[in-house]
């Protein structure tokens, strides 16, 4: 498939009219063809009108048809073959094996949502049968189901050019919920976006769905992104990216005449707490393994362990010594974009210049452009508690160890943390009491709590929570990864006294979808 | 029990220091004793600190203990006996039978939430067992449950001094979720608030819960209300009231360093659509019954039918004629407060002065103060479509009939409506196609759709949705009435690789709470 450099609005390929966007191969700084000219407000408007026209039909598609659509998207993505892998590698600087794995995750994710759609639990069907004889007032027949919110705007993320971009988790969960999707492509990987967008476009056609179910727009965040979130046809949005970018769009979503849910996954430093007995037993091993997690994807994971909090002493010294050695032998890695690399250098330099943080080690310097040099810093708990800027995320493989004088100070550091995607305990049996004391704090701080694992590596499954208190996300009640992500794009509707002929399939008396309903307070078996 | 005129902060009774608040008996304009002196920011801070201290313990109470607490509150409210009824009647001007019924609803609501707490579905427990042999990567043991958001601020509503005030739906659902609650009492019924607050306070003590689980503060919205929503210890808020009041607090909630969910139930005109065959068959009956619904509670229900949309012609004329007669013979009713009465008079006068609305009938004028005079107006669809101000809620028993020239124009009126709590179809079998055409529009506009019923009268049950798109509420994803209201105060947390000894009860391998979990994608029977 030849890249055309065009937006996809419904079934059309539309050339943009604004400034040209060129992907840059971050490994070489070479500019990649073709140019993607940015869209206008009118393009956004057209995509939104198409999505709106598609909405009422798409949200009532049969579960099997909708599941089949998601599976068809996965098939079409796989059918892109090596062209997709090559383009994504060139645009992201990520290794081929990583991109291949991410394609697998993306397609599995779509197929998992297909399974979720078929199971129908997300409809949350409830029935309170009529009680015509009840005194003093009869009760009408009452039924509830969930319906889709409306067209959803999705902002592609730079760090997962497949799994959290055009056909990523936000898109998959919104489509699963019955919402048409308009993706604002990330300017770092327009070619990858076009390829995946064409796969979705083809799936829409193959499944004979209304064309407005999917559109893909290129352009600046300022013009296209803001117009998209402000458009009255858009009823929710999903975003993964920086705190400043997320908050700017979030403010637009809240300032509309009709405010809408805006799901921004923004910043997290993912604290790791090696507890005393674990440190004592295997401090050096943990220190080495920690750097392995820190270096994954050049530290460009949302769940990268940017903070270690532990009680100081010989065992922590062993951890730090092993980590130092691992950092010093860390090869440099290509970062996603020149902008991300520059921000990383600035963040690392700020720590290096701080009189509150002591540099322990740096990794090898790379030869090419945009190389991420691993770095490790240490600070004291009192300095950390006194300086909020030490909690700022440095997006890349830099981490900070906070040395606490005792368990009480460690607890205070935990209480002072901002909201996080994850919090990790490294523990042995003898640490159980310490872990029990920390757990309530971590539950309040993070969406996912790990024991003896590393936060990088997010399983796509029913139980995953990739979310957490602000500023990790803008909405603590949700997850952006895993099947529960579908709930973000649904709302309950109650139907009172409707004749069976007027009821939607999910609510008809004969229960044609064979759902396990909550009837009169009892869950059907 | 003698009223003391004091705030309840934990187990203490605390005198306020700001301006005195006196309840007014709206039937007589007489001032009621005692004075309730308003609280300060320091009082708010103290209540928030107590709530915070109580939070970790209260959110982990055993299901049975928490359910028992809710039932104890209901028992304590009933134990207040006639004193509560008399005070609520005096402060609200509502008839005794209505207040007695509302007490029943309030206590039933608490007991229904107790049942919901015991059933434990709200925990939404999910398990993805470990797959240590999986290739290329093993899967850790992953579990998910819902936990409480944190301390919740509740704003008592004027129009349900029991069922949506101190121990009303917001409080019951937040306590059920495991959130401590701080209520800002509505200044229209401080004595009722104190009585119910003391009942909750007594229940906290009887159940040996941490005192910060409940506090009750009096004072101005500007000082106390805003301080409450802005306090960093508060993690969500529930509000029922005016659009301007709701939006002002909502903006504070969104402008905090850490924005929080703010559930405001604000304004709705609850359109009723009498369809042609139903009008033809029983236009006069429907017109009379409509006024019965319009007059309920002096029109001071959130679900009051403030709009009728139908196709003009002789059948609609019959409806209007019968409604006119019913309005003209409507007795006046005492409104809740002088302020609400004044706003009603202004709103009705604005319609009377409008050159777009024609006055059809007014009800009887009352003798006493604060009397609500029922009123009915008619407008054309073209005028309605051209003037958004005709959609403004007039809180009280005034309604507007919109005459459409045909089904297509009726559809356009439906499409132009703002978000609503309810939408009602009055239909016969022959109206089925017309109803089918309207249903998708109404699903997008309202949280509850009724057929051949009246929107006033909100059943407290599993299926109820008392919610809807903005401006009916600030969060379309939720309901403030019914058991699903508990979901507003919860968030998911994922536990990865935790040893069984560290897992919360709900997630332990032996499933001690006997929950029907989602295990590996399958719901347990």
TrEMBL record, chains A, B:
Task: Output this protein's name.
Answer: 2,5-dioxovalerate dehydrogenase
Family, per entry: Belongs to the aldehyde dehydrogenase family.
Stated EC number for the protein is 1.2.1.26
Keywords carried by this UniProt record: Oxidoreductase
Q: Does the keyword Oxidoreductase apply?
A: yes
| Highest taxon listed in the record's lineage | Bacteria
* Annotated Aldehyde dehydrogenase domain residues: 17-460
A molecular-function term among this protein's GO annotations: 2,5-dioxovalerate dehydrogenase (NADP+) activity
Reactions the enzyme catalyzes: 2,5-dioxopentanoate + NAD(+) + H2O = 2-oxoglutarate + NADH + 2 H(+); 2,5-dioxopentanoate + NADP(+) + H2O = 2-oxoglutarate + NADPH + 2 H(+)
Species in which this protein is naturally found: Bisbaumannia pacifica
Q: Does the keyword Oxidoreductase apply?
A: yes
Gene3D superfamilies per record: Aldehyde Dehydrogenase, Chain A, domain 1, Aldehyde Dehydrogenase, Chain A, domain 2
């Amino acid at each position: 498939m030849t890249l055309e450099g065009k937006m996809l609005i419904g079934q059309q390929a539309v050339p943009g009219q604004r400034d040209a966007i060129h992907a840059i191969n971050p490994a070489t700084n070479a500019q990649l063809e073709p140019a993607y000219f940015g869209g206008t407000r009118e393009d956004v408007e057209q995509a939104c009108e198409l999505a709106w026209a598609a909405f009422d039909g798409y949200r009532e598609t049969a579960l099997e048809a909708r599941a089949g659509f998601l599976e068809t998207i996965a098939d079409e993505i796989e059918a892109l073959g090596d062209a997709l892998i090559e383009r994504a590698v060139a645009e992201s600087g990520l290794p081929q094996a990583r991109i291949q794995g991410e394609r697998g995750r993306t397609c599995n994710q779509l197929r998992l949502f297909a399974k979720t759609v078929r199971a129908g639990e997300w409809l949350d069907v409830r029935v309170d049968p009529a009680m015509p004889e009840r005194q003093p007032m009869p009760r009408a027949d009452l039924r509830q189901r969930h319906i889709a919110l409306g067209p959803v705007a999705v902002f592609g993320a730079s760090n997962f050019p497949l799994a959290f971009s055009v056909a990523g988790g936000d898109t998959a969960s919104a489509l699963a919920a019955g919402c048409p999707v308009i993706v604002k492509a990330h300017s770092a990987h327009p070619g990858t976006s076009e390829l995946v967008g064409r796969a979705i476009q083809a799936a829409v056609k193959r499944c004979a769905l209304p064309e407005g179910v999917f559109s893909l727009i290129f352009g600046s965040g300022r013009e296209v992104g803001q117009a998209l979130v402000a458009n009255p046809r858009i009823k929710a949005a999903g975003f993964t990216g920086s705190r400043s970018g997320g908050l700017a769009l979030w403010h637009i979503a809240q300032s509309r005449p009709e405010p809408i849910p805006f799901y921004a996954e923004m910043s997290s430093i993912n604290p790791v707490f090696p507890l005393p007995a674990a440190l004592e037993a295997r401090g050096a091993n943990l220190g080495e393994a920690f750097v392995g997690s820190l270096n994954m994807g050049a530290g460009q994971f949302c769940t990268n362990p940017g903070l270690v909090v532990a009680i100081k002493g010989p065992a922590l010294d062993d951890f730090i010594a092993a980590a130092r050695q691992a950092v010093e032998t860390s090869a440099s890695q290509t970062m996603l974009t020149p902008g991300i690399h520059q921000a990383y250098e600035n963040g690392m330099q700020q720590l290096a210049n701080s009189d509150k943080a002591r540099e322990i080690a740096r990794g090898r310097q790379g030869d090419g452009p945009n190389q991420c040099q691993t770095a490790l810093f240490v600070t004291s708990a009192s300095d950390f508690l006194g300086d909020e800027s030490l909690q700022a995320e440095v997006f890349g493989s830099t981490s900070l160890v906070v040395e606490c004088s005792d368990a009480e100070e460690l607890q205070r550091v935990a209480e002072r943390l901002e909201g996080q995607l994850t919090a990790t305990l490294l523990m042995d049996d003898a640490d159980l009491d310490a872990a029990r004391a920390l757990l309530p704090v971590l539950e309040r701080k993070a969406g996912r709590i790990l024991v003896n694992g590393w936060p990088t590596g997010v399983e796509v499954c029913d139980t995953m929570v990739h979310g957490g208190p602000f500023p990790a996300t803008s909405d603590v009640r949700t997850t952006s990864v895993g099947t529960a992500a579908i709930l973000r794009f649904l709302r309950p509707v109650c139907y009172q006294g409707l004749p069976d002929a007027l009821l939607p399939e999910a609510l008809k008396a004969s229960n044609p979808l064979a759902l396990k309903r909550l009837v009169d307070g009892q869950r059907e078996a």
